[in-house]
Structure to design on (286 residues):
């Protein structure tokens, strides 16, 4: 294993992670909800009355973030072509629906509340992600 | 009040995603590429989030209600089944292919990244596929959804 020190951003990542945890804490302690993005979005696809407003507001806040961070330089590297992006999107949408959560719901909130279900889910998606990148980058 | 809190939480969440590097698919794939030149940054994202989250959930558990007096809506399921593991594996494959997971994809869409728009449209399609399949398997659906 070689660590890529040139890309390693410990302080920004730690601070960003703490903000993500703070946001999850805010949604939990003020709205009583789990900050799981796939679940929040999925709940809007089959809307139930009385369960819409907080979801729309949270997603709205999320979508405002790039404007609030306009001063912060980011240069995302997106290598996947449109076909790969479409396939990946379907897998992520269906997979998080069947698995009841994604990186935020299981990886942040679930691990924070020491949920065995989330620990298993997080181990599974990280392992699958590592295997996929290994096949694509080193066997392809 | 609830709505304002959710909006603020979403904004802080998105700022955290941008600051942490999660909205850069190259960085995400660099984290998953443990056999290549590995970028461990995202382990710190998760670590930082979970440490803060841990205390929040402990506090919420002790209080039993929110600070605005509302109820807590927490997942009740404890079973580990094929859907949980299989679904998470599918999610991980998609995550590794594109480097996007749902939150960062939405933020990237809002920052005008065209590839993120393709990903998000397909992701919503995948979620709708799930709902259609569930309706198909369960008939009119007397079982409450999550």
């Amino acid at each position: 294993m070689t660590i890529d020190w040139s890309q390693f951003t410990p302080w920004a990542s730690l601070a960003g992670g703490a903000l993500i945890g703070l946001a999850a804490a805010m949604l939990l302690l003020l709205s009583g909800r789990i900050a799981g993005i796939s679940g929040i979005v999925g709940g809007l696809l089959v809307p139930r009355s009385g369960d819409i407003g907080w979801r729309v507001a949270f997603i709205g806040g999320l979508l405002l973030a790039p404007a609030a961070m306009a001063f912060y330089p980011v240069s995302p590297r997106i290598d996947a072509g449109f076909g790969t992006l479409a396939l990946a999107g379907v897998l992520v949408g269906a997979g998080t629906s069947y698995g009841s959560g994604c990186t935020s719901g299981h990886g942040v909130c679930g691990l924070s509340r020491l949920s065995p279900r989330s620990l298993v889910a997080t181990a599974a998606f990280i392992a699958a992600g590592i295997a996929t990148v290994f096949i694509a980058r080193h066997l392809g | 009040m609830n709505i304002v809190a959710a909006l603020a939480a979403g904004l802080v969440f998105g700022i955290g995603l941008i600051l942490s590097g999660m909205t850069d698919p190259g960085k995400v794939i660099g984290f998953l590429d443990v056999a290549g030149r590995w970028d461990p940054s995202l382990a710190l994202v998760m670590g930082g989030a979970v440490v803060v989250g841990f205390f929040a959930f402990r506090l919420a558990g002790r209080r039993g209600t929110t600070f605005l007096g509302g109820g807590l809506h927490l997942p009740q399921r404890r079973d580990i089944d094929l859907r949980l593991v299989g679904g998470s594996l599918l999610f991980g494959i998609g995550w590794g292919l594109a480097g996007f997971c749902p939150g960062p994809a939405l933020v990237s869409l809002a920052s005008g990244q065209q590839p993120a728009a393709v990903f998000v449209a397909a992701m919503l399609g995948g979620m709708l596929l799930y709902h259609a399949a569930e309706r198909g398997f369960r008939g009119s659906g007397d079982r409450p959804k999550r």
